[in-house]
Amino acid sequence: MFYREAGQFKSSYAADQAIFPIAQDRTFVLFLLVVAVAVPFVLPGTYWFNAVLIPLMIFCMAALGLNILVGYCGQISLGTGGFMAVGAYASYKLTTVFFPDLGMLFVFLLSGVIAAAVGVLFGLPSLRIKGFYLAVATLAAQFFLTWLFNKVPWFYNFNANGTIESPPRTLFGAIAEEGGALDFLAALNPLVTSPRADPLTKYLFGLGLVVAFALVAKNLVRGRVGRSWMAIRDMDIAAELIGIRPMQTKLLAFAVSSFYCGVAGAMLLNLYLNSAETLAFGINISFDVLFMVIIGGLGSVMGSFMGAAFIVLMPVFLTNFLPSIGLPLDTATQKHIEQMLFGGLMIFFLIVEPHGLARLWQIAKEKLRLWPFPH
Amino acid sequence: MEFAYKLVVAPWIEILTGPLFFGEVVIGGVLAGVMYSLVALGFVLIYKASGVFNFAQGVMVLFAALSLVGLMERGIPLLPAILLTAAIMLALALVIERVILRYMVNQEQIILFMATIGLTFFLEGFGETVWGSNVKKLDIGIPDAKLDVSHFAISHAALAGIFAAATAASFALMFVWRARAVRSAIDTSKGLVQPPLIGPGTIGFGLFGLVCFAARFFVGPEAAFIGGKASSTASFFTNLSWFGLGAAALVALLTAATWLGRRQAAEDHGADVAPLHYGWFVALGAAGTVAAAAGVVWAARNDILINGFELFAAVMAAVLVIILAVFFQKTRVGRALRAVADDHAAALSVGISLRGIWVIVWAVAGIVALAAGIIWGGKSGVQFSLSLIALKALPVLILGGFTSVPGAIVGGLIIGVGEKVAEVYWSPAIGGAIENWFAYVLALAFLLFRPQGLFGEKIIERV
Question: What's the whole-model pTM score?
């Protein structure tokens, strides 16, 4: 318990339960949000959208999902890529076969639900297996799912080349198609998928999803559900003894996490890649997302964003930075040096701040609470 | 319906109608499994001693193989190159301890795990920057082809001599041990722990001798005992004697194992038994080697496909495991390693340097990685994908248990055999290319019954 001589006090229950109880924190998050909305209007060209901003949104979503599972519920999972594949393939089947008229927003949500169901299925072993044994066991999900999507032609509509493609769809779907009575809604119902869609629209759509789901996640983890997750994470037997049902709690974490990952997978296909095969959802994605969660900070919503930003921006930075300091390297060597730097930086960050970037922000917040009297 | 038939019925029919082919598949699986075990072994060593789940083991294999090939390309012969690479792996262990582990004491396991993934990226980039990223061939002079034993011949007289010596030795050893056991009064009072005087092993060797001489009688002294295909009689007796030699050695092995088991049981019940003589291990090892060698030659003579390179890998792995076992059980450093694996704090308190132990254990894991690198690199070329065998070793690990060396070996065998059998018999029914995930699902099935793996330490949880 902090012993507070000065600082920001709360005088109502509402203030006590605020998501961002510290004024500077509130301002900072609002500022981030404003920047996130404003930045695309300032940036020139489409490179930044396609190479940085849209992937950033996708990985924010995936990291958020994995952080719920690993950071809050303590179940290490390396199956993220598999669950993202479920989301992507579900969105493909939904848009092409089952509900061709459905708006993308609903497609994403439905894909998330399907991924959640699959997540629960592969979460079942977690009731018996713990720790790294579980981590390796979730790789079974990763490999099995990608194999399944590769081998069963139904999943890619019996295409000759085995890829899935994102069809052009609008945000809310055919209810507001042009020429109808709801024509005035067309501005609110832009094309969001396929290469024809405006990158800015795609980005804003992704941003909207991420912000909305971050809010949901934040409220989930600070409520009863989140507390029971954390109890399971800290010690599952003790949690069970105080009346938390491990099965429901763990499976709920798997479901919610897979929902987020599924939405992220659908976003990856429809907002970023436009066409993909199972290769795009490989084991590397699983490791990348786990890294985002750990670099960002386990058990922190803000940390998921920071970690995603770090891992997405770092290679971009390295790619642009290395040539600019004038090292005359061929592309292969440059790629290897990038890889070395990336690995080195990850180790460096883990040594300097093993609790992630979010921990730095948390320390700052503790100081800000008492600001301007730091003692 | 057809799918169900192909999944449930057809594979069994295939197995039952072609037992020889099934045998080949199983042998192939065992040999492949040994190669998985080699990688898993490195994981286990590090996890036991430092609690680090070392994901970089796979890339250490790649790095060792790259260094070895790189050195050989610069004109260094194989053996010095291997020694130099071992030195490089030792240096690597030192650097890892200096730069990473030292600063991560007492961190959570998942953080350490992530640090080793960072190390994976780094080593991958480093190795390929230094040695280049093109696919290289590692030639260690063992052809990757069917084992050919047709030119392998032992003269009749030599074999009879070997075998007479084996009978005499096995008889003499048993007599000596029995005398030793009798001297220890408490041993005999239990009546449990006397070694068998003339065990079935001796009898087995004796029977084998009879076969041998019968062969000589039928075939004649001029025929080479092995390798000659002079007549069907000769061929029959040749096969019979190889089979007999293997069977005799196997029986000797089983007898000894049974006796050792009873002795252990007596010790567990409080009997004060005499310590085991080293000769026992030597004899057991010799009998095991004879059994295995006879089995291999017998199988190869009967046209069962055995890959010579994989056999070499298996032998190398066995030698490595024996060396490691001796190192862990019989040396001062090994005892310190076991102490650290048992309890970090207690080990520290009796003056064992954790950091020193970490360097040693990473170096040992590096050398194991070198062995795996030689084998895998020799088989499939030295290239980036070599680091992906870490993903092959993970199911082996969870199946056997993170903390158990025997677990890594048995797990490797189970996964190797299961994978090969499933790939050959079941994968056509469900679309092929199942080797990516089958091992994981197999391991998962075992885990549901033993969450700590087959040989892992029992997980005890207290509130």
Answer: 0.82
